[in-house]
Amino acid sequence: MSQTAMVALLAWPVICLLFFAVLGPWRGVITSYIGSYLVLSGQVIVPMSGLPDYTKFTAANLGVLVGILIFDLRRFGMFRPRWYDSAALILCCVPAMSFLSNGLELWPMISALNSTIQAWILPYFVGRLYVGDPGADRDLALGLTLAGVLMTPAILLEKFGHLSISGIVYGIPLFNGYKHGFYRPVVMATNSLELALWSTLTGVVAFSVWVTRAVPRLIGVPFGFWAATAIGGAMICLETAALGFLMAGIFLISVTAGRPRFGSLPELLASAAVLVVIPKAGIKVAVMGLTGIGLVRYLSQHRARLLITAASLVAPVYLALRVTKLTTRSMLTSTIYAILGTERGWSYTFRIIMEDFMIRHVMNRPLLGWATYAEGRARAPEVKILDSLWIIHMGMHGIIGLASLYAMLTLPVLLTSVRRPVEHWSDPRQGATVGLAIAILMYTYDSMLNAYSMIPVPLMVGLVMGLPAAMGQARSWASQATADRELERVDRLAATGRVEDAEALCRRLIAVRSAGRSDYESLADACDRLADLLEAIDRPEEAEPSRRQALELRIAVASSASNDPGARATLAGCCERLARNLMARGRSSEAIELRGLALEQRAAVAAVFPEDQAALHLYADDLNDLAWLLCVGGDRVVRDPARAVVMAEQAVRIRPACKSYWNTLGAAYLRADDPGAALAALRHSLRIGPDETGFDEVLRALALASLGDAEGAREALARVDQLLEGGRGASASLLRLRAEAAEMLRSSVPAVVQ
What we know:
Number of helices: 34
Number of strands: 6
Strand order of the largest sheet: 1-2
Shape: elongated
Radius of gyration: 32 Å
Largest sheet: 2 strands, antiparallel
C-alpha cells in the first residue's frame, strides 16, 4: 500500500478545514468534494477495526461535515425537508431493508448502508443545506469548470507522455491500454471511461456558463477560453460514449439557453452530421435522425419545457421498458449496429444479454433485490461481467432501490424546467443552474452504460434539487399563468378605454385574492395594477393605499424567501413605484426612505449576479435617483449633499456613459459647495449628449453664479428658457432650480449655493 496515498487520505479532513477557513463554508464544501475526487487515490483503503473502511469518500465527507460544524453550524438548523427529499430518504433506507428482507447478518448491512450514505446521501444532504445561498449554483459551476480546466493538462501529459500521474504522485501506476493508437489517460479515476465522463460533465457546465454569458470573464480572461479548455479535455480522451454525451449536452443547451446566440446553427450542424453517416448507417437511420432533429427544433421553439421533460424521462422510461421486457433485444441493438458497426454493436449486444440474465435473476426478489453480491447472491449464474450502474444497483436493491436512485437523478432536471421556464434559460442568471442540470442528465444517461460513483455528482443533485425559482417565479406555473391571464384582461379593458370596467375587475380580483391570502404575490400584482390604473387617470391619492398594500405583501414574500434574488428585485420595484407616487405629491422624506429600501434590494441582487449588467444597471439607477432626491428633489430639511456625492460617484463609475448620472453628480457637487467639480461633471454630461431637458444648463447657471461668472450664468439661463419656451411643460424641480439661479443673479454678490 502506498504510504503517500495513505497520508494524503488521512490528512484530507484537515486540509478541508483550511479550505473552509480561507474560502468560506460553501466554497470550502465545493473545493473539498471536487478536490477529493481529483486528488485522492481510490486504490487505497484504510481498514478500521470495528468500523467501516476509510476511503476517499470517508475523507471527503468527514472533512466537509467537520468544516460545517466548526465554521457554519447554524446551517444545520436552517435545513427544511421537502417532498422531493423522499427519493434520497428511500435510497438511504433501502440497503437496510434489503438486508433485513434477505435475513442476512448485521455487519454486512452496516457496511452496505455506510457505502450508500457516503457515496450518495451525505453529499446530497450538504448540497441541500446550501440551496438558499445566493450564487451557490454559480460557485459550484465555476468550481466544476476550473476542475475541468486543471484536468486537461494532466490528460495531455498522460496521453502524449505515456505517463501515469497516479504512479508519479502515489507510486500506484494506472494503465488502461491504448485506443485508436493513443494512450488512454486515467489520472486519478478508476479508468479512462470514468475520466472521460468527468471531463464531459465539467465541459457541459462550462459551456452553459459561457453560452448564457453568466460569467463573461474569469481571472481577467474571457470565459470562452476556460470553457474551450474544459471541453477540450473531454475531447482529448477520445472515448466514444463520453463524446456522445458531450455533444448531446452541448446540443441540448444550444437549442434552449443558446437559441438567442446560435439560432438554427445547432440543428444545421446535427443534420450535417447525420448526412455524413448515411453511407455507414443507411437511409433508415438517417431519416430517423433528421426526424428527431426536426422534432427537437419544433419543441425547442414552441414547447421547450416538453423537450426538457422528454429528455429527462429518457432514462426512467428506458429502464422501465428493460425491466418489464416490453422491448426486444433486436429492437435495442439494430440501430447500434447500424451506427457503430459490428464491433461496437456486438459489445452492446453482449451487455444486453448480461442485463437480461440479471433481470430474470432479480425478478426472483423484485422489490428489494438480493442485498449483496457477496457469495454470488445478486449476480445471476450466467453473468460474466456487469457494467451499468442501474443493473448493479437493481441486483442489490431491487425495483424500489432502482426507482429511488433514478428519481433522485431525474427530479433535478424536471424541477429546473418547472421553476425556471426553459424559454428564459438564456438569461445569465440561469446559466449555472442550466449547466448543472444538464450535467446531471448526462451522468444519468451514462449510468445506463457504466457504473461510476463521483462524489461531486450527488452534491450537484442536492443543490439543483432544492434551488428556488429564479427572479420571483416561485409560484407554480399553473397558478402564475392563471393570475397573469386575469390581469391581462384588466390591461385589455384599460387599453380599449374601458377604464371603469378595468378598475372594477381589478378590485374584484383583489377582493377574491384577499379572501384566500394563499398567494401573496398574485394579490400584490393585483394591487399594483389597480394603483397603475388610478395613477393613469390622475388619482394618485387613491392609488397610495393600494401601493402600500402591495408593499406589505412584497415585504412578506421577501422575508419568507430572504435568499431569493427575485423576491428582492420585485420588492425594489414596488418601493420605487410608491416613492414616485409620494414624491409627486411633495412627501419627499417618505420617498427618500422608500428609495433607500429599494437601493438595499438592488444592491443585494447585484451582489448575487455581479456579471449581470441588467441587475447592475438597476442598482446604478437607484443610486442616481436617491442621490438626486438627496440634493435636489427633496425638501431642504432632508437634503444630504455628502451622501448624494458618494452615491452619484458610484453610479457614474458603474455606467460612465450615462448622461443623466453625470448631471446628478454635478447637482450633488453643487449642493456640497464644490461648484468647480460641478462644472466639470456638467461639461462631461454635455460631451455625452446635448441638453434636451434644461437640467444641464440650469445647474451650470447655478455653478457659474456661485463662482462669480454672472455673464456665463445668464447665458446658460437663457438657453434654459429657449429649451422650455418660457417654462411651459417644465418639471417642478427644473422650475425651482431656475428660480434659484435667477435669484442668485439678482444678488449683487453671488453666494455659494446652500
